[in-house]
Amino acid sequence: MVQTQKQTHYPSLTTHEGIVQRTLSIVVDNEPGVLARVIGLFSGRGYNIDSLTVTETEHAKHVSRITIVTTGTPMVIAQIKAQLERLVPVHRVGDLTEGGRPIERELALVKVGGKGEKRIEALRMAEIFRANVIDASTEHFVFEVTGKSSKIEQFISIMTELGLVEVARTGIAAISRGAQVS
Q1: How far is the C-alpha of 25 from the C-alpha of 182, rounded, in Å?
Q2: What are phi and psi of 130, to 5 degrees?
Q3: Distance in angstroms (rounded) separating the CA atoms of residues 18 and 159
């Protein structure tokens, strides 16, 4: 049997350089095409985006914040940051992970179907996870749950066993702790 090695865009790893996950905060001009340019930088080089959120943060200044969670070797992450900093509409690039443990939150809407005991158990588990019921019918619930991605994953996993129908997730919103500006 011949084994094939998985194709990857990451350079060969040395024993001290593994794959790391980073949360990047990118402050950009809020104008058409900026998001496409940032995303194009990732896709053009074969880098993956695990999570992406973007919104205008300073309306008067027309500035938006893009939060991207990505993975790669420390060398690849450094390349990504350097290339992002060279884009014209980018004001600053911050590595929230590098500056300590950032505060990260995600929102998910989780639709669960079921009757009887499974319905009661879904409501009980939602209470434990502090999920809010935002819509209900005789056969379905829609829960709103916020927290770290790991909490969202755990909630979805439990609801899968209880009749998960559909999930919509926002992606990660993150900010640095303390006085540090990202």
Answers
A1: 6
A2: 60, 40
A3: 33
